[in-house]
Structures are given as structure tokens and as C-alpha cells.
Amino acid sequence: MNLIVPDWPASARVKSLMTTRGGGVSQAPWDSLNLGDHVGDDPAHVAANRARLREQLPAEPGWLRQVHSARVVELGRDSEREADASLTRQPGQVCAVLTADCLPVLFCDRAGSVVAATHAGWRGLANGVLEATAVAMQTPPGDILAWMGAAIGPQAFEVGEDVREAFVDRHPEAAAAFAPQTVPGKWLADIYQLARIRLNRIGVQAVYGGGRCTFNESETFYSYRREGVTGRMASLIWLG
Fold first, then answer.
1. Residue 76 has what pLDDT?
2. In what helix (H) or strand (E) does residue 116 lie, and over which residues does it extend?
């Protein structure tokens, strides 16, 4: 199993990882460590892949039904799982999000007392899912650390004017994250920069990761925009 271990100055209590597409049993086009159970893959293969992942974890992840919202749930307290972020203060509970171009962001506080995982596609990002996660942590923003996992990069994420307006109308400085294309009304968006802007605006300055491109690194990552029918990676965090 090929795993990415976040490089950030989190407390020793905080454990985290991101999967790649390598190390599973799924067949093309989901090859091979697809963890998404909603993308058309053989359920037995998904179950086998999740069982392999489970060997790296203290418990079964709290899988969410992601809907591009700004809803945050607390594992062990909220029974509802239709959300795009989860958090926990309990050791051994695993927060997890699935992505294949959208931006996964992992959070913790400096003391290692609360962790969270957030799925931030452009809609969720524009709707404030990162800010909602930070608020739900009930931690001063200056004490929050964030790590950005692999997402579609700024050379591949072409969007329309509606997406640009969704960010720039709220925060004018977000204009710097959009590069115009030769086709009028088309832009290349930097989702990493957009996330940093949103986090910095609320006082979260300790932001790490970013820079990988799911679209261009086809041997390492799934990309919905590149392949259409494809698998999902997981980004996970828990307290040891």
C-alpha cells in the first residue's frame, strides 16, 4: 500500500495519512486501491481495499456521505453522516474524507486534543467548509494547524466565470488565484491558493502541504476530471 504521511509539525498524538491509487485489488478503471463505494466498483473489491486500509488504523473510519456542503459532524456524537467534514476529540476515532480532484484538508490543534478531516471541492470551499471546520473545533485559529492533501493542480483546474465570481465576490484577493485562458470566460484556478486565502482570513496561518496534482500524476492519484469513471483516495486523521 502506497501511503502519503503528512509532513507538518503536529503533536505526536496526531496520526494522519493519505492513500494513493496503489496497493489494492480493484480492476481498471478503479485500479487499484479504490476506497469509494459509490463509484461503480465491485463492492467486494472496495471491501477488500478498505480492509487493507483498516490494518493501518485503530478503528474503522467514520465514512461520510459527501455532498459538497459546509456541514461538519462530530464522530461519536452526531449520528448524521451526510456532511463534508468530521471532527473528533476522542482517541481512536478516525476522521476520513474521500477525494479524486477535490481538496482534502486535515486539521488539528497544537495541543493534539482535536482533529478534523474536510472535503473541499470548489463548491464546499466557496460555501465555507474550511471555516466551518475551524469553528467546530472550538479552538483559537492561531492554535490550528492545517495540511492540504493532493488535489487538482493550478495547471489543470479549468473553471468558468461562475466559479471565479463565487470566490472573488466574497474575497477580492482571491482574484490572484485565477489565471485567464485564451477562451473568454475560462480560467485556471489554484485551489491550494484559494484554500490558503480562506484559512488565512480567519486567522489560520499554519498551513502545510499542497503542490501535488491529481490530474497530472496519473500513476499515483485518481482524477475524476481526467478519467470520469475512477476511484477515490482517502485522507484520514485520528488521535493516538
1. 87
2. strand 115-120
Q: What is the largest CA-CA distance in the chain?
A: 51
Residues 26-59 as b/e (b if ≥16 CB within 10 A, e otherwise) read beeebbbbbbbeebebeeebbeebbebbeeebee
Structure confidence by residue, pLDDT tens digits, 141-162? 999 999 999 999 999 999 999 9
Map residue 6 onto helix, strand or coil. coil
Total domain count for the chain?
1
206 burial (CB, 10 Å; 0-12 / 13-18 / 19+) is middle
- Cell 489565471 maps to which residue? 179
For residue 71, the enclosing domain spans 3-152+202-239
User: Is the omega angle on the peptide bond into residue 32 within 30 degrees of 0, that is, cis?
Assistant: yes
Closest CA relative to residue 130, chosen from 201, 231, 48, 226: 201
**193 occurs within a structural domain:** no
CA pair distance 60, 48, nearest whole angstrom: 13
Looking at residue 104, which CATH number applies to its domain? Answer: 3.60.140.10
pLDDT in tens, 63-120: 999 999 999 999 988 888 999 999 999 999 999 999 999 999 999 999 999 999 999 9
% of the chain at pLDDT higher than 90: 98
Within-domain flag for 157: no
Distance CA 212, CA 200 (A): 21
Structural domain contains residue 171: no
Cα angle for residues 177, 181, 186 (degrees, 5° grid):
80
